[in-house]
Amino acid sequence: MSTTDILTRSTTVQPASSIPPAERLSGWVRGRNWIGLVLPLIILAFWQLAASLRWVPPVFLPSPLATVQAFWKMLTVQKLHLDFLESIGIVSQAFLYGSIAAVALGIAAGLSRRVEQFFGPTFDTIRHIPGIAWLPLIVLWLGIGAPAKILVIAKSVFFPVFLNTLQGIRNVEKNYIELGRVLTLTRWQLVRRIVLPSAIPNIMVSLRYAAGLAWALVVVAEGLSGMQGLGFLIFRAQGLLLTDQLLVCMVVIGLVGFIIDRGMFLLQRHVLRWKQGFDG
User: Fold this and answer.
1) Which of 39, 45, 54, 170 is deepest in the core (most CB within 10 A)?
2) Domain limits, the chain
3) What string of H, E and C letters represents the secondary structure of the chain?
4) In a 10 Å sphere around its CB, with 0-12 CB exposed, 13-18 middle and 19+ buried, how is residue 174 labelled?
5) CA-based radius of gyration for the chain
6) pLDDT for 11-65, tens place per residue?
7) Count of CB atoms within 10 A of residue 166's CB?
8) Is the entire prediction scored with pTM above 0.90?
9) CB-CB contact of 62 with 244 (8 Å)
10) CATH 2.40.37.10 fits 89-271, yes or no
């Protein structure tokens, strides 16, 4: 066996999809994965203890059981799922519009200094105006319906993705560019085979961040303007001192945010499966 074969076999990493289910299960049993559940269980136990000993009045801190009962009531009587669908629909559209525009313009600005100089001053000015500051003006233009919220959230999604896409293209190793020129690649081949693959890690990280940001902002947008959605429910519960319903909405938002982040992480790992890094 040649030295090259030995190095190739020794550095080959077994993909996660090829690991037998029995080995994955044993990983859970040995505690490699369930350690992430320890802190939530500690928080839940502390919450139950504080409610049982009445460290905080029940009107301000209902017990976990009372919160579960409130969740069931909201789900069956108050149609919580309709508010959830309203929020997730707004987030999905805003994330889609904002990220597509950001990636397209980010690639254009990254590939052309003139495009960057054309958009740069305007974008750098608008970027520093918070999305919520635009909401009152946009409500005057579009009303308090979904389009106003979508526009505000899409604006907030746009700039992190745009800047990371631009920076990802500009951070391509110069040696790679010179190698492409030595190989007499055309500009399109250089962009497709070297520039964009090198920028994809930055783009995927920014999309993951933007997805979480969009979900967080929908709460504020719906709370300030709207009559439906999880954000509206939170502000209504706060005004009526319905702390159990307030906690239900917070837990739902947190869990959905976690699912969105995990989904984007899995997508990122799938897209970047060719890129191996430090596993910690």
Assistant:
1) 170
2) 89-271
3) CCHHHHHHHHHCCCCHHHCCHHHHHHHHHCCCCHHHHHHHHHHHHHHHHHHHCCCCCCCCCCCHHHHHHHHHHHHHCCCHHHHHHHHHHHHHHHHHHHHHHHHHHHHHHHHCHHHHHHHHHHHHHHHCCCHHHHHHHHHHHHCCCHHHHHHHHHHHHHHHHHHHHHHHHHCCCHHHHHHHHHCCCCHHHHHHHHHHHHHHHHHHHHHHHHHHHHHHHHHHHHHHCCCCCHHHHHHHHHHCCCHHHHHHHHHHHHHHHHHHHHHHHHHHHHHCCCCCCCCC
4) exposed
5) 24
6) 344 444 445 555 554 544 455 568 888 888 999 999 999 888 888 888 888 999 9
7) 25
8) no
9) yes
10) no
The token pair at 112 is 């052309």
Given the structure tokens 């009587």, which residue do they identify?
77
Q: Which amino acid does the sequence have at 94?
A: A
